[in-house]
Amino acid sequence: MSLKSFGRVEALYKKNPNSFVLITIFFITLALFSVSLPGKFFTASNFSSIAFQLPELGILTIAMAITMLSGGINLSIIATANFAGIIMATIMKNQIFVERLSGVNLVMLAIVIGLSTSALIGFINGIIVSYIGVSPMLATLGTMTLLNGISILTTKGYVISGLPDEMIVIGNSSILGIPIPFIIFIIIAFVINFWLRKTPSGLSNYLVGSNENAANYSGINTKKVLLKTYTISGLLSGIAAVIMISRFNSARAGYAESYLLVTVLASVFGGFNPNGGSGKILNLIFSLFILQMVASGLNLLGLSSHLAGALWGTILIVVMLLQNTRERKS
Question: Which residues lie across from 174 on neighbouring strands?
Fold first, then answer.
């Protein structure tokens, strides 16, 4: 590499260190698994599989990341998604709804009610956190426990399966070879990125996360900012539920429970500070792809899926240590 090229790389690193590191890790991971698994990893079918698996985790991670950006956390995203999914599946499968609403598109009605419910749960979280002043961790932990209890109580732990074909097509079909769930994820990522970087409401999220008191004194209504953030987080959980139940052709209380910690990992790995105030959606997308590629690569190598979990935990610890070291130096 010439001195001129090295200088460009160094300038890129100084301008966006998180982006530079993530892009480097992305290509190293891609190269390592491509060499280790010739003809298996770097294939259209494998990347299509990744594109089908990533969206629900990706949308849930964005739901987690925007609350972390504001200096909080939302531990109820999985419980919200499962609860919304159960509501949608119940409406589509309940004979009473089928008979009484024969002229209505039941799938669309179920989705609208499910998304409205998830947004309402997020709104309630926002009220508890911003106006009542309960710690985000305790507030959303309480919501998670409540929703899990209601979900298990209403379903008795059983699976609601056999959804209409119109619903199943959302999570299992493609447009021009691109999975519909992945298209939904990219649209969501673009919209949330625009909201965070280009609107006063989104930019206020960064300020609130950096210093809530300073943001308050500067004229920002921090309570409204937090309320909107948690409402959007709830809505995103509902969108993830649509993809989840349509892909699995079923809904139940315990789906995707392991995703909760992964959403925190992906957010921190993607540069979202757990203390709030910093993070980019583009970096988050790279972190999600890296984690999904690692899981896919280990699976193709025939290694235990638990190894991926252990590796993800190691990544989280290393990232946190590096972040703390960087903060101390600055």
Answer: 179
